[in-house]
Amino acid sequence: MSYGKLLGAGTAVALVIATAGFAGSHAVKSSNATVAARHNQMQMVGYHIGVLGAVAKGEMAYDAAMVEAAAKNLAALATMERATLWAEGTEQGAADLSRAKAEIWQEPDAFAAKFKALEEASLAMVGAADAAAVGAAMGPLGGACKGCHEQFRGPKIE
Fold first, then answer.
1. What is the C-alpha separation between 49 and 70, in angstroms, rounded?
2. 34-84 pLDDT tens trace
3. pTM
């Protein structure tokens, strides 16, 4: 196995372990395990965007390794196989606490494109030279999130 593949596999294992630990302490109280896991995926996305945003705003010192890790973790989250997390029948109205619109399954290519945009915006952050570069890359990253939420996320459940 090449060093790159080994490093990628190690990152994936670390991400799974981190996600499992995070999910256990911040689990959504949905009776549907798929919805709960999906919420945890989105919490991990939000966490890493928060790290990058804090660097961009000067709330956290720029650290190249931290920026690269957050960006790569975001990209990995965007490339997770969706079949287990976005199972048909878990849309809003069909599964408690789900905000996923039915359009996800009606327009699967458009939905996949939104995750691809998140992956690309995340990877564009890798190698950011300083906090200003991180800040400049936040626009496309936020745009990727907003684009998906506007098209595929339903209203907040009270």
1. 7
2. 999 999 999 999 999 999 999 999 999 999 999 999 999 999 999 999 999
3. 0.80
> How far is residue 129 CA from its own chain's centroid?
23
Which domains, and CATH codes, for the chain? Answer: 3-152 (1.20.120.10)
Long-range contact set of residues 145-151: C-beta below 8 Å, sequence gap at least 24:
145/45, 145/49, 145/118, 147/114, 147/117, 148/111, 148/114, 148/115, 148/117, 148/118, 151/101, 151/103, 151/110, 151/114
What does the pLDDT look like over 130-158, one tens digit per residue? 999 999 999 999 999 999 999 999 999 87
What is the b/e burial string over 118-133, where b = at least 16 CB atoms within 10 angstroms of the residue's CB? bbebbebbbebeebeb
